[in-house]
Amino acid sequence: AWREPAATAWTRTVCPYCAVGCELEVGVADGRIVAARPALDGPANQGHLCAKGRYAQGYVDAPDRVTAPRLRRNGRWESAGWEEAIACAADGLRRIVAAHGPDAVGVLGSARATNEENYLAQKFARVVLGTNNVDCCARVCHTPSAVALGRMLGAGAATNSFDDIERAACFLVVGANPLENHPVAGARIRQRVRRGARLIVVDPRRTALAAIADVHLPLRPGTDVALLNALAHVLFAEDLLDRDFLAARVDGVEAFAAHVAPWTPERAAGLCGVPPEAIRAAARLYARARPAMCLHGLGLTEHVQGTEGVMALIDLALLTGQIGRPGAGVNPLRGQNNVQGAALMGCEPGSLTGGARLADARDRFAAVWGVAPPATPGLNLLGMLDAARAGRLKALYVIGYDVLASLADARVAAAALARLELVIVQDLFLNETARAFGHVFLPAVSSFEKDGTFTSSERRVQRVRRVLAPRGAALDDAQILCRLAAALGHGASFAQPQAEAVWDEVRRLWPAAAGLSYARLQTRGLQWPCVDAGDPGTAVLHVERFAHGARAVLAPIDPRADDERADADYPFLLGTGRHLHAFNVGTMTGRTPQQALRPTDTLDMHPYDARQLGLGDGMPVRVESRHGDAVLPLRVTDAVAPGRLFATFHDPVRAVNRLTGPRRDTITDTPDYKVTAVRVRPA
Ligand code: SF4
Q1: To test the ligand 1 pocket, which listed residue (45, 162, 464, 594) has its Cβ within 8 A of the most ligand atoms?
Q2: In the chain, what are the domains?
Q3: Looking at this predicted complex, what is its ipTM?
């Protein structure tokens, strides 16, 4: 039997998948990855990895990896040299900026790229092109968390650390399925529950975590705010508040009490479909436990009220004093390894590096860059596509992201991409966006072929180390950005693609990262804020004061009426999400042996509904929404309630994102992937 050769060298780096940020050692033989093992002292994983981190590196040498630049000529992709490809991309950008102005171009950074590369991407947009049209895929996942936490507490990031899982006496998990999507953190939660911590799960589905919960609240999709208001109502009604904490650190209590007074559990139960007694039981458990930790996922954020949903969750933590202490807090479980880093580096239209507000920090950045960032507010990802559809955006430079396969309302996204005069895609593979709409393809390298840093969900900046030589002619994103900047006449300010030098520039601009030198990160990742060389980093935020001041203000939130409802034509409500063995749209896991473990996306339906429709397990079914359709094999399971469906979205060909529609979070534009009315029939 054939066996992998034994590794001849091991290099420590960070898992390329979710934002738990597990550290691993990667074994190489004959220039190929042959093994991966967990770092025993990895801060978040402590000797563990999930199946993806351990086994899913095969995409690096997948047969369809593209390792030389390509240009589309006469409708066909042709290989090109770097000089020709860079010149073509630069000429196209120069022409469009000259004809239509800099705001006719958009740039998308990448959660797959390092902090340093994302920093350069937004600097490229602002300095070279002269636009704030820069964003990243945080827009479609946890921007609502960052905005809600930033507004209410002053720092748009998780308040606590994964180690705090061991200290929590109770978990309130809202719209998250960590056993599948953040498996190492999920396993830590499950272990802690087995050792006595209490568990409340708010999720329409009976996930494996919900199955072991003390209280499972299987709410009707999209009713999070009503449910959270009812939990707050119980806190007041049963005097479960932390009065000392409120007196010392929170304003707006009386107004908030008046706001939630009508939100009795009985009233919420009518909207949310959960028993009033379960709501009361959850409120009691959460408030009485010391400490209790909130963890939330995209089930809370990817809604028309995504940001307000997170704000309502923060209200609960403030009312009970479950914040600013170990084992407590409000903690978004970030999906991609460096999605927090991408946004924090400035790949956001309204923020510069470190989350500095564009309006406040232009002079400070001008002092380092030699040129001020443009003053005109930029477009976010959704706004860019709207502008493309309207003919105002002419070019899009997409780094490490498959727009077409990822965005809700895929047909509309396709129509927008089709109108662009120039689409530059920088990735490992010809993804769906490149295949359908790309004009220039710039081959990038995987995280195993470069140096830099990632920022994990717990605000930990960790070193990414080169394990392998870059494949073929592929270059890392920093080198490509610097070449493109040089071709556009900005070689001087983009002369330094070495990761450490770029990071030192980041540290000059972001005071909360000033103490995070490569020398210190060499031995162990550290959590920002870390303001100088003697600062050990910050495991728990908001201990004495909130990041924006001494007091936080409660935010009364009203549930909004949602026009996406099940009706006679579309009788089911569909939510989408991930499963254990695949990651996002499958660009990486789809090219590894993991794919064989669950080779296709599926549609989950309750046995009652399946019987009513005469459908059986494994049957191919056509799912239709008002926005599009998809064919999926059926999985009959009582993990979903009657009338509700769940589909995974890892196969870009099945394209479940054709089903989801145009509804967006009213504050951040994050698409609603969780509530879509659909009908189902045999395919
Ligand atoms: Fe990688 Fe996340 Fe799995 Fe850890 S839990 S090994 S970071 S995918």
Answers
A1: 45
A2: 9-61 (2.20.25.90), 70-140+338-527 (3.40.50.740), 143-332 (3.40.228.10), 572-662 (2.40.40.20)
A3: 0.99
